[in-house]
Amino acid sequence: MRQIRRMNTPRSTHTIRPGRTLPVLATALTLLAAAPVHAQKELSDASLEELMQMPVTSVAKKAQPLSDAAAAIHVITAEDIRRSGATRVAEALALAPGVEFAQLAGGISAVSIRGFNAQFSTKLLVLVDGRSIYSQLYSNVFWDLQNMMLEDIDRIEVIRGPGSTLWGANAVNGVINIITRSARDTIGGLATIAQGFEERGHANVRYGWRMGDYGAMRVFAKTEGYDQALTANGRPAGDGYRSQRFGLRGDWELPQGDRITVLAEASHGDLGIAFQPTPLVPPSALLSPNGSFHGAFVLGRWQRALSLSSELSLQAYHDRAVRSDYNRIEEQVTDFELQHRTRNAERGDFVWGLHWRQRADLLQHPNTVLMDPEGVRQSMAGLYAQQEQRWLDGRLVTTVGARLEHGYWGTLDLQPNLRVLAHLGPDTRVWAAVSGAARSPARADVSPRIDLPGSGLLPGISVRGDPEFQSERVTTLELGVRHLFAKAIAVDATLYANRYRKLLTRRTQLTFAPFLANVTMLNGMEGDAHGAEVSATWAVTPHWRLNGHLAVQRLSMHDLIDPGSDFERSVEGASPRTQLSVASRHELAEGWSFDARARYVGALTRPYNDALAPERRVPSYVDLTMYLGWRVNRQLELALIGRRLAASSRLEFVPESGLGVTRPQRSVMLRGTVKF
Amino acid sequence: MPVLRTSAIGRRAARAVGVALVAALGLALELAGPPATHANDAAEPDIKAAMVFNIARFTQWPAAALGPADQPFTLCVLGRDEVTVALQALEDKPLHGRPIRVTPLVREGAIGDCRMLFVSRSETFRLNQIVSLLATSNRPVLSIADIPGFALKSGMVNLVKVDEKMRFEINQKEVEARGLTMSARLLQLALIVRTRNE
After folding, report:
1. DSSP letter (8 states) at residue B89
2. What is the pTM of this model?
3. How many CB pairs lie under 8 A apart between chains A and B?
């Protein structure tokens, strides 16, 4: 709940007579709009008796109201996730427009928004129930550790563009909020089992119960396994893995004005490692062919109603994870946040907050030093405030806010945003924003100290971090339009232009005595990016819905140290220039439902790679997903889901580390869900 | 490499055909006619919003409480969720001869402007405060909450889901104590939690 309110402006409370302006996309959509639109009886005209006889569905029956957020936001619903067949949370993110997703070896995913996709994708912040899962070790999310229970997710809010004012540093190109359901909404039992060509022995069980009049608790346990993918040459990649997780969530809504949430989870897994030696990561670097992880977190949140329209929220969490593959990584985070929010009908929301986080890590390898020092304990602090202001009876809403953050490495970053949203008639919203965000230095930018001796004709390698590394910065301009055509077709379009400064680059210098490639991290690159994202949803009939997403982008990088370097091209070429998806969702008779989704992902011209490794191109592909669901009765639901149907296997990405290049395979999965 | 290129085009064509087949299947399913079994179901927030409207339709306010006929009928809303978004669609619909105006309640003093108050589920933790606020209003306010048990806690009506269908509970005693009258039909359909005699 907390997350979406940060971005939403208060809903409009009045209607403006239609002065139907159809901006930008009108021409493109004339054809669609001209198509016959299913006449829908207004539900409020139904009688009470009729309403009481209507079965409640979780499926939206008509076009949803236009969002009043002055940002490019898309919400993935629980229903979307269930019917996508996604078994890992990262896969579900690809349901949102503009999200770049590629499956790498062993559950590792490359996920980004608006470019810069990589295994260590540094510019996308991800939060689960207010807890950051973005690691400051390599500036990435370890997606293979995030095997959360998808059935517990209420929704995923995907915000493209900077979100650092409210959510903190590293929300450079976007922020993703994964929000799980309140324990009060998961009373009773749920069990799911699934088996597929690739998905092996998936089972989870959840049970929730009421605690007194105002509280509820749920506990869950989950196990899942995955078959190995293929290597680029079509051999088994050895990256199959299994993981287990169990946890609980408690929620109390005490009527005297307190809301309390408690979350705790523990997980562990055995990871198969698809490993590909490169000069930077020689075979001796691998600890063992089998990796593993274990982790746990506990989170508490207390909200206190100060008045009808204001509340104070205090949140604390501790998160610890250990992951071993080619090295052993241990990372711990302790985080406190205080937030005060006030609503005001005439003016708008005002929110301010204080944030403090401490992290500790330890990076070890038995044979070599990777970072200097091996372990650190460091802290950061932030202060933010944002004011909404409503003008012209709420037809115009402005948002002004900024966050000042003192980072782990002594950086001081101001991350402001200025947003304007206007209602042009009841069915049109136009918004614009200018915002700035920072990607704070990671340990991998500051601390690396690797010395590998050469062998034969190959030079040795020496890698050094930059103790003076500064935050990467972006300034973003955005312009968005939303329009509802004929109450049935909702179109949401965004244009953006990004200016990046102080981007990470690597300088490589050869010395001959000794024969050594010296690699140094630097704030040595600038860049521009611009693009457009369009998504459209058409409620063709109450039981048939079509939607389409299009994202196009161009990146242009300028290496200031070594103009025209490989590093420029590897950033520019790591993300598809075009992504397009078309999906159909159908409710059939007798509890049957059918979805189909096709997704085109443009070619990657020069994915990230070690300077010395062979260059690889990832061809464009079309992904085809189908879902056939049957609700047998109120307790039992069966689903047959086919994914990656267009080809038996395909290359989606070439990771930049020593991780082996793999080809994920086609899969058909049968899933049963029982409620008890 | 012309051979490779041809096969790549072939594969693409095959994929395009696959996509077209799915689209055709979707269209065929659609043309087969709307399935009768769920022509009737609806999304939960929409049903709840429609119920709120209907409950208000079958409730009578004392003539003086509604004010002059040119005044809008103010539906105050506490909290923000999918139901309050669905309630926005009631804006300008006529109710008791007046256009509905949906407005968020943010100041306690503004309760006097509300003819009706909807409390969303997100406000459960403010329940005590809301109940005591309602007691201070000198004009009758029809209070409806999407919170089970609200009608037992000196609220008037709460929505409740029973066997995947929406029902509502009425605290008749509270309704009548505030000078509102509900039609016999409404009371008949409701799950009464407290009668006027209790």
Report:
1. G
2. 0.89
3. 196
